C-alpha cells in the first residue's frame, strides 16, 4: 500500500466533539492508568517492532511473524486460531470478559516489500541481503501497537470487570491486496462492533468519511498455446507469450481513453521456459484501480476484452482469469474518528531527538528532497467528507472491505520518514530505530484510550452504527469483488522467500542478547553521509 492511501481526501474540518471521558471520572481515571501502563511497556513495543523487521517476510509467507505474535498473545490468555479464511499464515486472537460485547477488532498489516532490504538506521542504500525483501513500507510496527494496547486494556477489563471482546488479527499479503476480503467472506467480523485498524505513516492522525484510496482488482490472465521448435518449425506453434505481449500493448493503447483517475500496472510472471521453444503457457498480472466498485469492475471488464482480443490475434486460448486479490476504497466512521482524534490530541507526537532528526534529514538529502526532518505537531483539526473531494486516484488498502461491513477507522502512527518514495528500500531505514519505536508507542497509547472509550461509552458505538447505516451505506451497499470460486493465492512469494530465507535467518533479532536490533547489527545510530561543505565564492 502507498503510505498516503491511508490518509483521507481533505474535506471540511469537523468541529471538535466532546471527549468521551470529559464527563466520566471513571473513564478519565482508567485512561490515565492506561497511558502509564503502555509507557511501562515501551521495551515490549521495541522488541516486537525489531523482531518483525528482522523476519522481513513477504505476503502469504509470514510464518515467523505468525509464530512469534501468536506466541505472545497465547501467553497473555488470548484464544488463537491459525489458518483463518484458508490462509495458512493468517490468524485471530480473541479474549472476552463478561457479556463479550462490544467486540472490538484491532488489525494491522505484517508483510514486506520485494527487494527492499536495507540496514536500519543507515541513511543511504546499504542492503542487509542483496536483492532480498525488506520492510520498505513499515508493516513491521503496527502489531506492536495493537498487542501492547490490548494487553493493557485486558488487564484493566479484568480488574474492573469491564464487558467486552478484543479480537486481534493481521493484514496478510496487503501488498498483494489479497487478504482482508477473504477474512470478511469467512465471517471473521460477523460479531464485531468496531474495527480499529492502524497503518504506519509519518504523522499521528485519523480522519473520517471517503478515503483517498483507490478500489482495486488484482487479476492474472493465463494464456495457453502450443509449443514448437522456435527455429525449426515456428509456424507450427501458437505463442502464449505473444498473447501476453499483445495484451500489454493493447492496454497501453487503451490507456489513452481511460479516466485520468484510473491506475493500472502489470508484470509478466511467466513468459515461457526457454527461447528455442515456442511458449505454450504465459501469464500477465494486472492491478486495476479506480474510484469505486462499478468503475473498477468496468476497468476489469475492459481488461478481459483486451485479453480476448490478444488470444484471437495469436490463435491461442485465454485459459484462466484469476482474481488474486481486491479491495474497496474505504469509508471511515465519523463518530469513532472523533473519539480517536481527541485521544490523539492527548497523546501528541513523540519527542524526536537530534539523532532521529539527523537520520531523517540524511535520507531526505540522499534522495534529493528538502531536508526538513520529522514532523513534531499533530493536526488540530479532524478532517473528512462524506464523498470524495477532488479525487484523482492513488494507492489502495484492502481495509476498505472491512470498513464497508463494520464501522472502522485507520490510525496513522509516525514511524516513517516524510518525503520518501514508498515501497522502497529507503522506507525501511527508520523501521527498526527509535523513530519506529517512539511512533508505535505513541500509537499504542492512542489505541488503548480509544478502546476504553468504546468499551465504556455505549453512545460511541451506537453513533458509529447510526452513521454506518444511515450515512455511509444509505445508498452504497457492499458486494465483494472476489467471486465464490476465487481462493487466496497462497503460493505467491513462496519462491522468493525460499531463495532468501536462509540468508535472512542469519539476521533474526535475539532480544535475549541485545537490547535493540541496531545493537545486534553493530550499527551506530544514526549513520548518514556527511554534509558536503559548499565552496566559498571568489572575492
TrEMBL record:
The keyword Hydrolase applies. One of its GO terms (cellular component) is cytoplasm. One of its GO terms (molecular function) is dipeptidase activity. Gene3D superfamilies: 3.30.70.360, Zn peptidases. Residues 1-22 have a biased composition (Low complexity). Residues 1-25 are annotated as: Disordered. Coiled coil: none annotated. GO terms for biological process: folic acid catabolic process. The keyword Zinc-finger does not apply. Keywords: Hydrolase. Residues 215-291 form the Peptidase M20 dimerisation domain. This is Amidohydrolase. It comes from Gemmatimonas phototrophica.
